[in-house]
Amino acid sequence: MKKGQLTREIILDQAVTLAGEKGLNNLTYNGLARAVGIQPQSMYRYVTNIADVKGGVVATYVSHLVTYLYHELLPYSGKDALIQLALKFVSFTQSGLSFNDMVWGISAFGDDPQVAEQMTALHDLSEKLITGITTDQDQVKANTALFLEFIIGHLGLMTASSRPVDQGLFEPNVERVLDLM
């Protein structure tokens, strides 16, 4: 890549791609520099160190997830929007960064301001939709947590289970959870 065309965002997008292919833990500073076509010492113009890169990868991934969900949900409202959020969330996590890497990255870099900002955006998107269907507004925060934990728990089972997870039950179970609200 030509000098002057490279940005932090381009480097992080490339890092997301590499992490999706090789895993977040296998992402290296030198490998990323090679992938963007610069010397490792030149990377310091854009990223501080490998921890900065990995935190940036997690923030970028969650940002892409939130943007994707936002655009996919535009035609929907209410309960239908939340069902679609759950389905699209699961679908999005089936490509790119593995779910295990995402969870590890959020745990490891959750205090990173960029990661925290993107996690807040994901939470806010969900909460806004939950607010619209919650009968007791004092329960919005608890309902939002229940909804997101249900989706993440399902993803965890899909990833860690030795038995195949019955995908046919996911949408009806999302509806059952939403009916509790």
From TrEMBL:
Organism superkingdom: Bacteria
Pfam families found in the cross-reference section: TetR_N
Occurrences of domain HTH tetR-type (ranges): 5-65
Keywords: DNA-binding
UniProt DNA-binding region: 28-47
GO molecular function, one term: DNA binding
InterPro entries: Homeodomain-like_sf (IPR009057), HTH_TetR (IPR001647)
Protein name stated in the entry: HTH tetR-type domain-containing protein
Organism: Secundilactobacillus paracollinoides
